[in-house]
């Protein structure tokens, strides 16, 4: 049996931990042919290196990053751990999948019970990374979100990249937005979700997980990797 290692960032936020665990329960339901275990790259345990080492003793392992873009943790932490074990491989992160834009649009709908207004503007609020590929991933997600909602969309980052979310919110207001909504491009409650919430938008949507569509992306990433082996 191949092991699917669902690797999240890690968080000290109980709500964030609960959201990730609920997501993993959903993945187990969708991938009955695999053993599904959790690992993290930061903050919590068990760390990805230890989990790959333990699981690859008896099984092939596929690491699916529960991350939304190709940043340091995906390109360095996870990749380095995978490359140390010949029975391990990794998939792309989740954020460029079209279903992510569907979830983002639904989170916005839930955050706006009275619907869209003239003068609304959405800032797609991402964690941020110094890796240019991560910025491109967010741009892909923003493009897909634009096709799903009837208002303009710009991008802001909580750290590492520019513009910062607070600056993107201010820029939207300066160009005439009457209400600025931050679309949380983060997986679960935690540090980065807090930065999004504190960036000054009028409305902030919830993080993406748990959601059965996010679990479905994880399952698809895993199965695609297995076929490629």
UniProtKB/TrEMBL annotation:
<dbReference type="InterPro" id="IPR050963">
    <property type="entry name" value="Sirohydro_Cobaltochel/CbiX"/>
</dbReference>
<keyword id="KW-0479">Metal-binding</keyword>
<keyword id="KW-0456">Lyase</keyword>
<protein>
    <recommendedName>
        <fullName>Cobalamin biosynthesis protein CbiX</fullName>
    </recommendedName>
</protein>
<dbReference type="GO" id="GO:0046872">
    <property type="term" value="F:metal ion binding"/>
</dbReference>
<dbReference type="GO" id="GO:0016829">
    <property type="term" value="F:lyase activity"/>
</dbReference>
<dbReference type="InterPro" id="IPR002762">
    <property type="entry name" value="CbiX-like"/>
</dbReference>
<dbReference type="Pfam" id="PF01903">
    <property type="entry name" value="CbiX"/>
</dbReference>
């Amino acid at each position: 049996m191949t092991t699917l290692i669902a690797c999240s960032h890690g968080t000290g936020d109980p709500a964030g931990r609960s959201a990730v665990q609920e997501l993993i329960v959903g993945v187990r339901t969708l991938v009955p042919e695999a053993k599904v275990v959790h690992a993290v790259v930061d903050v919590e345990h068990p760390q990805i290196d230890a989990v790959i080492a333990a699981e690859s003793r008896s099984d092939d392992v596929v690491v699916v990053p529960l991350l939304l873009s190709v940043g340091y943790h995906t390109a360095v932490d996870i990749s380095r751990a995978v490359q140390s074990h010949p029975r391990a491989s990794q998939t792309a992160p989740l954020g460029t999948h079209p279903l992510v834009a569907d979830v983002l649009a639904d989170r916005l709908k839930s955050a706006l019970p009275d619907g869209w207004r003239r003068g609304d503007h959405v800032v797609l609020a991402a964690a941020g990374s110094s890796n240019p590929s991560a910025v491109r991933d967010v741009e892909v997600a923003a493009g897909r979100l634009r096709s799903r909602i009837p208002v303009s969309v710009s991008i802001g980052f909580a750290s590492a990249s520019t513009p910062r979310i607070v600056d993107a919110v201010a820029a939207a207001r300066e160009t005439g937005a009457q209400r600025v909504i931050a679309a949380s491009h983060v997986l679960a409650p935690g540090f980065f979700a807090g930065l999004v919430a504190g960036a000054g938008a009028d409305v902030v949507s919830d993080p993406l997980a748990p959601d059965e569509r996010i679990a479905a992306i994880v399952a698809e990433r895993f199965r695609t990797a297995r076929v490629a082996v």
